[in-house]
Amino acid sequence: MSFLKKIFSKEKKETLDKGLEKSKKSFFDKLSKAVAGKSKVDAEVLDNLEEVLVTSDVGVATTLKIIDRIEERVAKDKYLGTDELNKILREEIAGLLSETNIGDATTFTIPEQKDPYVIMVVGVNGVGKTTSIGKLAHQFKKAGKKVVLGAADTFRAAAIDQLQIWADRTDVPIVKQKMGSDPASVAFDTLQSAVTQNADVVIIDTAGRLHNKVNLMNELTKVKRVMQKVIPNAPHEVLLVLDGSTGQNAFEQAKQFTAATEVTSLAVTKLDGTAKGGVVIGISDQFQIPVKYIGVGEGIEDLQVFNKYEFVDSFFK
């Protein structure tokens, strides 16, 4: 299996390598201790490897899946040297990611369609949701798309102000109302405005509070229903933003949001400041939702399209 498809530009790949540096160093420090003094992959090495994967935030269920696959290979090949473990892990993890992340996107694209393509963005406060929306708007605009933003997180004045800053920075129009307004009303106005302006992409920010899942579910359902009065199939994508640096907490957030609404894609942010990059593997596998974007730095260009080949290559480089 060859995963070394060089797809990203050199600059983009360097950013990804640098962004995953802490995760990679932590993982391989643990892995070298796990196989120290061993030449063969045996039960003890597999036990140690299991601990390495769990403590690298891959998650228990996904870890067990990886260990099972490696055990199968050990049984089939009779002898596997620990020097081959890196290559095998790389192949099995890329294989797992392939099951969910079918496409190998390298650019910020949207499906061709008559109506504006509507992305509803969900996630708790503080995960980098609004920043990700701003960076997405920048990338779509750079790709020649006409973008409209909707500030439907009316629960916090700061969320509206922050989105306005990003709208100014990326020079894209924003539709907003005052704090406390009905989020569905903002979403409705945004879509109407986007249709009038003949926009290509609409990105709607939504409230990020999880204290009451029923309220969240009702609110998101209402926002969707009202949007469909303007564009029948909206939203075309529900993007959940997760903070990669929170490790297992990101799993919990994914669980809550996937229970509250139908999530179709994921963005995992803040991977550059953490050793918890393994969370991308676990979340993608456990929720069977494709990771579409990853945040590997603070710069406006540092939200990248997730490509499984490049990710695995950077992680195991």
Features:
317 residues; eight-stranded mixed sheet; elongated; 13% strand; 8 strands; alpha/beta; Rossmann fold; Four Helix Bundle (Hemerythrin (Met), subunit A); single chain
Tally of DSSP β-strands: 8
Uncertain regions spanning at least 5 consecutive residues: none
Based on helices, strands and strand pairing, what is the structural class?
alpha/beta
Task: Based on Cα principal axes, name the global outline.
Answer: elongated
Class of the largest domain in CATH? Alpha Beta
- By DSSP (H or I, 4+ residues per run), the number of helices equals 12
Strand content: 5-15%
Named at the architecture level, the CATH assignment of the largest domain is 3-Layer(aba) Sandwich
Strand order of the largest sheet: 3-2-4-1-5-6-7-8
Calculate the mean pLDDT score and round it.
90
CATH superfamily of the largest domain: P-loop containing nucleotide triphosphate hydrolases
Report on the biggest sheet.
8 strands, mixed
What portion of residues is helical? 40-55%
Number of domains: 2
The string of secondary-structure elements, in order, is HHHHHEHEHEHEHEHEHEEH
- The whole-angstrom Rg is 21 Å
CATH topological fold name of the largest domain? Rossmann fold
User: Gap between N and C termini, in Å?
Assistant: 16 Å
